[in-house]
Input
Amino acid sequence: MTVFLILGLVGLALLAVSLIVGEVFDGILDALPGDAFSTAVVGGFVAAFGFGAAAADAAGLPLVGTLPIGIVCGLVVGWFAAWLTGLVRGGGSDATPSTGDSVGYSGQVITEIPAEGFGVVRVTVGGHVLQLNARAETAVGAGTEVHVTQVLSPTAVAVAPVWGSLD
Output
């Protein structure tokens, strides 16, 4: 049981190092596909294996039963760590969205858009609220839901009313 507990503590230490310092095995395990052997995955696997096997040993199971339990615990936590690592690495950035990012999004008219002029729309892109000048082919009243169709300039877009919300 002591060996399993030591393995669990070593795994936790490796996991803490990967959180504080970053990828320790960077470059060493690049030949292997994906993030299956990142520091976080290896640390999570070793910690779960050690603590899972120690729990099985404490329950009185023989070594033949503790090892499979430790391996299953390690695989589950290792898979979860790989999934989280991939999720974090593939996530977006904190960059402020630009006018071009608003194309395809829906928004709401704040200031009425006249037939041959500009009004103002509010569009939410990635949690950021953009307030942009807007032009439409026809007059659009305030409060109407619109869809951004084109960028006209760094501060202006073309919009079209969302079907069913014409005023």
Observations:
- The chain has a mean pLDDT of 85.
- The longest strand covers residues 145-153.
- Residues 27 and 38 are 10 Å apart (CA to CA).
